[in-house]
Amino acid sequence: MGTILLIIIVVAAVAVLAVLLFGAKKGRDKRQAGKRMEAQKLRQGAEVESAKAQRARAEAEEAGARAERQERFARERHADADEVDPDADGRSREERERYLRHGR
What we know:
By secondary structure, this protein is mainly α. 91% of the residues lie in helices and 0% in strands. The protein has one domain. It starts with a helix and ends with a helix.
């Protein structure tokens, strides 16, 4: 009877151990699935932010090009005015050019 009881205890222990290992694996798999979902959300958010940054950069580049065109137009108008103005001298023209080129 002692041998049968020992076999039953060993079989029960192996069964309990198997259930615990199976439960631990299921828990780990569930945690990993949750982390995968979290990573997916973070990646999607990063893609949205990247698209916003690219759009903002393009808008800034466009605004910069527009500002350069406006400055060039202003310099041309100043040059036209200097040609017409009998009191304009080269020094004021140079100062204005320096002002426009080097950021006020």
